[in-house]
Amino acid sequence: MSLSRRDVEGIAHLARLEITEGELPVYVDSLSKILSFVEQLNAVDTQAVEPMAHPLEGETQRLRPDAVTETDQHAKFQGNAPLVAQALYVVPKVIE
User: Does the global pTM surpass 0.70?
Assistant: First the structure.
């Protein structure tokens, strides 16, 4: 699938992205290639493929040990905050 400049401008507007005139051709080309790849993936017949409940079915995933590796530094970080009350950051009310 090939996108036009107008398509990419519309997508950028919906996503609230500011794309310059110089960047526009790059986005048109890149997004067109991505959509072409997705079309190729959609064309593959997956009717005979059994869905997987887990990608490592029958295997176990190695996990790191559940051990504390960082020290508690909340007092240090809250020292930089403009306002702290009862060990919580106090922020201005946003909803009126």
Answer: no
